[in-house]
Amino acid sequence: ISQLSSLNVAKNKLTKLPPDFREIVGMLKIDISNNDFNVFPNDVWFCTNLTSLRVAHNRIKEIPSLIENLCLLEELDLSFNKFTDLPVQVGRLKLLSKPNFQGNTLKGIPHNLAKGGDIAIMSFWRAMVDSKRTKKFDVSNTGMVDLPNQIDQMTWLKDLNLSDNGLVRIPPQIATLNLVEHLNLARNRLTTLPKEIGGMRMLRSLDITGNKIRALPLELGLCQDLRELHYEEQMIVMPAKEVLNLGVRSLTIYLRRLREAILHSRLALTGMSLTQVPKEVYDMIDLKELSVDKNGILELESGIINFEELEVLSVNMNQLSDLSFLLGDPRKPPWDKQRLGVLRTLQLRGNQIQVLPPEITRLKSLNIFMMDNNQLTMLPDEIGDLVHLEQLSFSHNELSRIPDTVSTLVELNYLNISHNKIVALPFALGKLMDLTKFPFNDNPLLEPPLEVVVKGADFTLNYLDICCKALQHGVMEVSSINLYEIPREVTRITNLTKLNLSDNKISMVRKELIELEGLEILDLSENNMKIFPTVLCSLSLLSDLNIGHNNITRLPVQLGRLSNLKKLGLEGLQLIQPAAEISNLSAPGIVEYMRKFFRVDKGESRKLDIANVGFRKFPREIAVLGTHLTELSLDGNAIQDITNEIQALSELKRFTASNNQLLNLPYELNFLKEVEYLDFSHNGISAFPNVHALRKLVYLDASHNVMSSLPNNMRRWTALRTLKVTNNDLQSLPEPLGELERLTSIDVSDNRLTSLPGSIKFLTRLGQLHVKNNAMTKVPAVVPLLTTLNELSLSGNRILALPPSLCLCTAIQTLDVSY
User: Fold this and answer.
1) What was the pLDDT predicted at 449?
2) Reading across the β-sheet that carries 654-656, which strands appear in turn?
3) What residues have CB less than 8 Å from 361, skipping those under 6 apart?
4) Are 567 and 543 spatial neighbours (Cβ–Cβ below 8 Å)?
5) Distance CA 134, CA 774 (A)
6) Number of Cβ within a 10 Å radius of residue 530
7) Other beta carbons within 10 Å of 191
8) Rounded distance, CA 509 to CA 499, Å?
9) Cβ count within 10 A of residue 624
10) What is the DSSP string of 289-307?
């Protein structure tokens, strides 16, 4: 039997071959048709010389791939069995010319091939086998409605053409063809692509035109080498048309990111040139993070508020112009009952947003809010309602102010307002105790001053805290911080009662300080002021003022307005005015002194009485009063010299400086052209100056001095009526004395006169003449000619006899010639 070459056991009821069958290695033909085989007998595979094999009319369900061992087969009859698939290895039977597959329900066999019979089917299988060499498999236009199951074994393919068939589905096994670079599915009846297509990582081109596919699977994004995608544009609804227009590379990135978003609840569509958020993204309401940075998005649709779980929303570097999505949908329930309830981070940097709507407060869970590089001009006060904010940034905008309501953001640790147009920082920032990072550079800040802001954020915040506390308690301490001027913001703390600005470099005090009407204590000591700020004189409640250790040399007369001043610090000042004697007085004394000046300066009075103060020098501050002063009393001081400042008092009418230590009088008395009354008695004046302009002088008292003569130009004192020069050292009187026709009283007692000038006979109004205690030995011959005399005193002289001519003085009522 080992020599047997042909075996026919057809039409039996065999279910298997005898055990020693495999030893018949020379077998050429076998016919086991019409038996009861359920599985292909394995012993056949050892008959490698077979040329004919008939297994028809059995119940075999599967053809093993070992059939490729029978490489000499010319005839193969597998008809009327129960298998549905043929192994790819059938295609390797190159000598097979008589195949028979009838009576079986083969799946995946193209309809057109089935019509062509078994030879055509065999050719299809041979093409599958040949594809291993060519790496291409073209079964286009074959009428297939389903792919053969063997397709998943063709893992060598690089080019697969399934176009122009009737395919309604692509099986998941397509993923095994992971070397395919070109896949043509055009013109079939496909409605979807399997998600397993993402396993075809080498895919470079895909054609799905002529199908009814409306959505691309997200897994297509895993095909990162895909460069060509052909589709019906009007048919695809997912992704959005805008995404499709971005090109294949961007499309795969987009799909890949959407897939990752489903896995991780985070979606990043950065740098994809989008002009709007694709509509399918709005359906991903389970997202926790959404980033669409670096696109060209013009607006966010209101659908964004439906994200119940969204914690991070980043729309940096787009073209948003408003935040209308925050306004909600009026057709739906109240906004705060809708979405974005857990949004913690909102980033809107690099857009074109001009207005931040008050509705921003609806994002009640917000921790991080970034709006740098926009066009904001203001922030709503409602920003303070975002009480959970920890980071807030508005750099590179057009902001001019920060609302005070930021004081409620007590959890804030980072605030960036740099590169804006902010002029003043609100005091409220000082309340933010957790604020550790505060960039505010490149703003035209006036408040706080430059001296504060250059010291950095921490120092600035501490300063604002001081301002904030001052607003609450009315006390402010800002000493030793190198201020060059009183900060503008200080003048707005109108409830201040105490202000310490000592040890700075303040050189001027702004006029707005007048707003601090309730200020009681002010310390400006150890600064660089050269001029006393007169605005301080308007702070009527000041009781304690310290301006010591400045460069102030003059106190203004307006200081007299401070009637409540009890303490005045002038330590270290080198005052020119008021006189040093005044600066040594108590504060009330100084104020009282200056009040006299102030009343004159304001026109409340034209009289200044500063007698018996103890001046050693002429008070230069008197000159400040100028033409306001008409009466001046300096009596009872120790003044040695009247300085040329006297010339400023051109309207002076009465001037008394008796009981001083004057040694001479200034020529500038000539400027007192309105003066009527002069009293320089009880001084040490040795000579009367050559003053000629005293044309209105009515009364002159120069008694108790050391003058030895009177000036000849006294003839110009034409209005003089009373002349007192007693207790001097006069030896004679000038002849021009007789030209003073209005003289009514002359007292030259206690001098060394021996005679009187004859010119006095022309004094026709002279009524009183006192020449007591002189060196006369006789009554001057001119006396009897003074017929208007009613009082004549010659006592204390050595007159031995009265001339008979004295009887001509008929008007005399009092005559004293005692010795």
Assistant:
1) 92
2) 607-609, 631-633, 654-656, 677-679, 699-701, 722-724, 745-747, 768-770, 791-793, 814-816
3) 382, 383, 385, 386
4) yes
5) 157
6) 12
7) 12
8) 13
9) 18
10) EEE--SS------GGGGG-
Return d(Cα 392, Cα 554) in angstroms, integer.
Answer: 51
Residue 607's beta-bridge partner residues? 631
The Cα-based distances of 206 to 229, 258, 392 in angstroms read: 5, 20, 47
Alpha-carbon gap, residue 682 to 802, rounded angstroms: 33
- Angle in degrees, CA 571, 573, 576, rounded to 5: 140
Sequential DSSP letters for 533-561: -GGGGG-TT--EEE--SS---B--GGGGG
pLDDT of res. 108: 60
* Contact present, 57 and 79 (Cβ < 8 Å): yes
Bridge partners (DSSP) listed for residue 522: 499, 545
Whole-number pLDDT of residue 93: 85
CA dihedral 315, 318, 324, 327 (to 10 degrees): 10
State the pLDDT at residue 334.
53
Output phi, psi for 367, to 5 deg: -105, -35
* Whether this model's pTM surpasses 0.85: no
Contacts of 462 (CB under 8 A, 6+ apart): 430
Residues 6+ away with beta carbon under 8 Å from 69 = 45, 48
Strand partners, 184: 161, 207
Instruction: Tell me if residue 8 falls in helix, strand or coil.
Output: strand
Handedness of CA 203, 208, 209, 210 (dihedral sign): positive
CA distance 101 to 106: 9
The Cα–Cα gap between 106 and 763 comes to 164
| The amino acid at 495 | N
Q: Which residues pair with 544 in a beta bridge?
A: 521, 567
Pairing of strands 768-770, 745-747: parallel
270-273 contacts: CB < 8 A, separation 24 or more?
A: 270/294, 270/295, 271/295, 272/243, 272/246, 273/246
306 near 339, Cβ under 8 Å?
yes
CA distance 109 to 139: 10
The one-letter code for the residue type at 786 is: L
| N- to C-terminal Cα separation, the chain | 201
Task: Measure the CA angle with vertex 310, ends 308 and 312; round to 5°.
Answer: 160
Rounded CA-CA distance 249/228 in Å is 9
CA angle (27 as vertex; 21, 29 as ends), nearest 5: 110
pLDDT at residue 111, as a whole number: 56
pLDDT tens per residue across span 773-796: 999 999 999 999 999 999 999 999
Rounded to whole angstroms, how far apart are CA atoms 749 and 331?
A: 114
- Please work out, in degrees rounded to the nearest 5, the angle formed at the alpha carbon of residue 303 by the alpha carbons of 299 and 309: 115
User: 309 by DSSP, 3-state: which?
Assistant: coil
Q: For the chain, which residues score pLDDT lower than 50?
A: 335
Cα–Cα distance between 108 and 111 in angstroms, integer? 9
Q: What is the predicted pLDDT for the residue at 109?
A: 67
* Tokens (6 digits) for 364: 């009640």
Residue 817: name the closest of 778, 784, 761 by CA.
Answer: 778
Main-chain dihedrals φ then ψ at residue 489, nearest 5 degrees: -65, -25
DSSP line for 225-265:
T--EEE--TTT--BS-HHHHTT-HHHHHHHHHHHHHHHHHS
- Full strand arrangement of the beta sheet holding 182-184: 136-138, 159-161, 182-184, 205-207, 228-230
- Give the closest residue to 344 by CA, choosing from 299, 300, 389, 304: 389
Angstrom distance (rounded) from CA 198 to CA 225: 11
How is the chain split among helix, strand and coil, in percent rounded to 5? 25, 15, 60
